[in-house]
Every structure is written in C-alpha cells, then in structure tokens.
Amino acid sequence: MLKDDLHRFCGFHVVGHSGYQEEGSDIVCSAVSTLTINTVNSLEHLTHTRFTLQTDEKRGEMKLLCKDAVTDSEQLLFQSLELGLKSIADSYSEYVNLIKS
Rounded to 10 degrees, what is the CA torsion of 75, 80, 85, 87? Predict the structure, then answer.
C-alpha cells in the first residue's frame, strides 16, 4: 500500500506470485488478484480519480498510482483493499507479505 506525505493512501504495488500452488490453481494469488482488480475497476467506474496503472503478468506485478489528491471515497476503497490483503496475509503469512510505505 502506497501513502502520500500526509499518510493517506495514494496507490498500491503488488509484486510476485505467491507460490502457494501451481499457476492456474493458486487460491492465494487468485484472491490477491481479485481484490486488486476490483479496486482498479471501482476507482475507474465509481470515482473521478485519475491514475496510472502498470501491469506485468509474467512477474505478477500491478502498480496503481493516483495522479491527484485522493478523496475520502477513494480512501475508503483503498482501506477496503488493505483490509482484504491483510486478511489474506494473516491467513497465508508465508506466501503474502503486506508492506505499507
């Protein structure tokens, strides 16, 4: 989870594959992907935020960075993402590491 100088969410960066199971049947990777893709879709369709999005499927990487100050509604979406990722990290700690920066 990425935060700005005011400690408000301004994006996220997900890197790597979990290695929980082989590709195509990895429930941990699927859960993280679902949460991040849903957050991107929600920001795109439910808010007016402008953001950059970079992806690299081979590396299992997705990086979203907001271009403008993030509203309270957008903060809520990021908080929801963080809550979901934290839950996955708590259950699968050897496969998921949540870093806040």
Answer: 140
Determine the number of helices (DSSP H) and then strands (DSSP E) in the chain. 2, 4
Cα maximum dimension of the chain: 40
pTM over 0.90: yes
Give 17-37 pLDDT, tens digit per residue.
888 888 888 999 999 999 999
* H or E element that contains 66: strand 61-66
Contacts of 10 (CB under 8 A, 6+ apart): 2, 3, 4, 65, 66, 70
- 């989870």: which residue's tokens? 1
**What is the rounded CA–CA span in Å between residue 55 and residue 8?**
23
